[in-house]
Amino acid sequence: MTLGDAVPNLARRPWAFAAVCVMIDSLTLLVFGLSQVPVIQLLPWYVVAYLLIGACIFVPTGRLPSLRQAAAFLLPGALLVVLALLNLGPWVGGWLLGLPAWGLLLSRWTPENRPRVLQVLKFLGLLMLGLLIFTFNMVFVVFTPGLFLLPIIPLVRLAYPEYRARPLQAAVEVLLGFAVVVLAFAIPTPDGSWSSSWIDAGGAATAGLMIAFWARGLPRRSRRLQLNDGAIA
Predict the structure, then answer these.
(1) Could you tell me how far CA 209 lies from the centroid of its own chain?
(2) pLDDT band at 223 (very low <50, low <70, confident <90, very high)
(3) Given its phi and psi angles, is residue 216 left (phi above 0), alpha (psi -120 to 50 degrees) or beta?
(4) What phi and psi, each to the nearest 5 degrees, are found at residue 110?
(5) 115 pLDDT band (50/70/90 cuts)?
(6) Residue 162: which H helix or E strand, with range?
(7) 20 to 30 Å CA-CA from 61: which of 20, 25, 107, 221?
(8) Using CA atoms, how far apart are residues 91 and 93, in angstroms rounded to an integer?
(9) Are 50 and 24 spatial neighbours (Cβ–Cβ below 8 Å)?
(10) Which residues pair with 121 in a beta bridge?
(11) 112 HSE (CA, 13 A, CB side)
(12) Lowest mean per-residue pLDDT among 88-92, 140-144, 146-150
């Protein structure tokens, strides 16, 4: 028996905030790199970022994702990479904005609880809004304060006993919250860029938190089903 089996709601939830922090750092670095090297050279870093976000979502649940979950998580990124390399579509970095939320949505996919069409459409709509926020912020800097929420959010969550009962997650997310801010200011502004790296990170933070907050609030399966399988899907 694991801790998650004994206390189902305690240790089997995806690390959504950590996934958002990884996304922000990755997207900021990729935007910086895009102005320096061709897209093909950034592909390994994109794959690493993709897998790290997936690990934050699926590993804490205590179960490997099913084949359909893994395929649904990986396939959009793979298709967008092909389109980007062929210059047939927008660069794939924008997909990272919604990837933590997409992973959260898929983590609840079970035979009893399949993603609904309306949920997927809402996700796509929020992703489009997030892309607008990210792009708009490069010029008008309206959403940059979202960056400075990152160290505050996990500290506030420490007030909740359930969060304190997961010390590893709490420690990682507190460190990531501060690390994102430090890295955002440490990255030099690319030559010819419309905005600074910390402004890009601020837009990514606001958009990523918005989409992930929506996905985190989606209803889970009933408590009876959670107790039956010992995990929150």
Answers:
(1) 8
(2) very low
(3) alpha
(4) -135, 170
(5) confident
(6) helix 161-164
(7) 25
(8) 6
(9) no
(10) none
(11) 12
(12) 88-92
Count CB atoms within 10 A of the CB of residue 40. Answer: 10
Say yes or no to pLDDT of 229 above 90.
Answer: no
| 61 membership: H or E segment, kind and range | none
List residues bridging with 110 in a β-sheet: 113
Whole-number pLDDT of residue 193: 67
CA distances from 88 to 39, 85, 96 (A): 13, 8, 18
Token readout for 27 is 């997207």
Q: Which residue has the tokens 């402004």?
A: 199
- Distance in angstroms (rounded) separating the CA atoms of residues 89 and 82: 9
User: Bridge-partner residues for 113, per DSSP?
Assistant: 110
Contacts of 210 (CB under 8 A, 6+ apart): 126, 129, 130, 133
**How many CB atoms are located within 10 Å of the residue 112 CB?**
11
Q: Which of 76, 81, 74 is nearest to 39 (CA)?
A: 81
Structure tokens at 29: 């670095």
> Distance (Å, rounded) from C-alpha 158 to C-alpha 183?
23
Token reading at 181: 């801010």
Q: What are the respective helix, strand and coil percentages of the chain, to the nearest 5? A: 70, 0, 25
Which stretches within the chain are classed as H helix? 3-6, 16-34, 39-58, 67-85, 93-107, 117-140, 152-157, 161-164, 167-186, 197-216, 223-229
